[in-house]
Design brief:
CATH topology of the largest domain: Aspartate Aminotransferase, domain 2
Number of strands: 12
Strand order of the largest sheet: 2-8-7-6-5-3-4
Number of helices: 12
Bound molecules: 4'-deoxy-4'-aminopyridoxal-5'-phosphate
Family: Belongs to the class-I pyridoxal-phosphate-dependent aminotransferase family.
GO biological process, one term: amino acid metabolic process
EC number: 2.6.1.-
Strand content: 5-15%
Keywords: Aminotransferase, Pyridoxal phosphate, Transferase
Structural class: alpha/beta
Radius of gyration: 21 Å
Enzyme class: transferase
CATH superfamily of the largest domain: Type I PLP-dependent aspartate aminotransferase-like (Major domain)
Length: 394
């Protein structure tokens, strides 16, 4: 096995030095070693990709669609995304100039951060939040400024945003909003988004909305987008990973005004050339012929949420009402104070249930744990039983 030359070992990209591996993944890997553990740790749908979507990809491969695709995406897919956004959010994006197909929502985030952030730029990140944002932002040399939303039920208020913009976030260039939220499951009401849009405009910010869980909202909640209020400054990110159970296909997209989209498409082309042909064919089928699929997924997750939420509340767990995505962000029992790591460790080793410590999601997450209910109903039933037994004995 080759060993890196001594004279090269100190010349790696130094920006990476401060970036550890994902704590969420590391905790999950540790928990996975425990025999018989039920993992509620990872944001991965247990549902399968619909058959008609798989068939579309297979047909595409058989038809020898195996050459470079247009760099921003196949025209038919761009059209399907444009129609989908119009249908679901009533927002209008031109398929030729305002949309880009990406390698998952993660690829979209990378393209966007690289397109708008210079080293030293500040970008506001309401927390707790999906922690990969921090790493991707830091890779560009920009600075994530955390806004702890835990005092407001994990919803950023316009007043809080304005205060931050006059203090630690002064001069910020952008804000990223995850709605529905991973890890809290919270959903922004239209009125709050509208009020946030006014502050964002007043302070001349770009807004980036991560709407990867947009289809997964429950109990009469409706998903809205800043693109409905400030399309001239919003960059919308979404994809097929969650609602279509297609995490492994790696298909995401970005919609934004043509002026910034030109740059985004350029960056995307630099980084990936184009997204895999048969994955794009599958996505065309999912968006054009799979309108019932996200609704079905939504129903399944809604039932599971109801089951888990009711069960946990009966055991004394407190939480801000989860309204979307597939996570519950619950306060840990008082016995553990705010030591969510200790609680998660004990729950894993003693009760064999894996949950993720809240502190891994940034400021305001301490004292909470994230539980994913993207597991089968049987697994959730068993997990709840084990949690009940654990809680009785502390
Ligand atoms: N954004 C959020 C908020 C997520 O939770 C995830 C996945 N955990 C992603 C983006 C990544 O999505 P994708 O798999 O499409 O890259």
């Amino acid at each position: 096995m080759p060993k890196l030359a001594n004279d090269l070992s100190l010349t790696k990209n130094t920006r990476l030095n401060s970036l550890g591996p994902s704590k969420i993944r590391a905790f999950d890997e540790k928990a996975s070693q425990i025999p018989g553990i039920i993992k509620l740790t990872i944001g991965e749908p247990d549902l399968n990709t619909p058959d008609h979507v798989k068939d579309a990809a297979i047909a595409d491969i058989k038809a020898n669609d195996s050459h470079y695709a247009p760099q921003a995406g196949k025209p038919e897919l761009l059209e399907a995304i444009s129609n989908y956004l119009d249908r679901s959010l009533d927002v209008k994006y031109d398929s030729k100039t305002e949309i880009c197909v990406t390698v998952g929502a993660t690829g979209a985030l990378n393209d966007v951060f690289m397109s708008i952030l210079n080293p030293g730029d500040k970008i506001l990140v309401p927390t707790p939040v999906w922690a990969l944002y921090f790493q991707l932002i830091k890779l560009t040399g920009a600075i994530p400024v955390q806004i702890d939303t835990s005092k407001d039920d994990f919803i950023l208020t316009p007043e809080h945003l304005e205060t931050v913009l006059q203090n630690e976030g002064k001069g910020a260039k952008a804000i990223i909003l995850t709605d529905p939220s991973n890890p809290t499951g919270r959903v922004y009401p239209a009125a709050t988004l509208k009020a946030l849009a006014e502050v964002i405009t007043k302070y001349h910010l770009f807004s980036v909305t991560d709407e990867i869980y947009g289809e997964l909202v429950y109990d009469n909640n409706v998903h809205h987008s800043l693109s409905q209020y400030i399309p001239e400054r919003n960059i919308l990110i979404s994809g097929l990973s969650k609602a279509y159970a297609m995490t492994g296909w790696r298909l995401g997209y970005i919609a934004a005004p043509a002026d910034i989209m030109k740059t985004i498409q350029k960056v995307n082309a630099f980084l990936v050339t184009s997204v895999t042909d048969n994955v794009q064919a599958a996505a065309i089928d999912a968006l054009n012929n799979g309108q019932a699929d996200p609704l079905e997924a939504r129903k399944i997750y809604e039932d599971r949420l109801e089951f888990m939420k009711t069960g946990l509340e009966k055991l004394g767990f407190e939480m801000s009402t989860p309204q979307g995505a597939f996570y519950i962000f619950a306060k840990i029992p008082d016995t553990f104070g705010t030591d969510d790591e200790a609680f998660a460790n004990e729950l894993a080793t003693k009760a064999k249930v894996g949950v993720t410590p809240g502190r891994y999601f940034g400021k305001g997450g301490q004292g909470y744990v994230r539980m994913s209910y993207a597991s089968s109903t049987e697994q959730l039933q068993e997990a709840l039983k084990r949690i009940a037994k654990f809680v009785e004995n502390i």
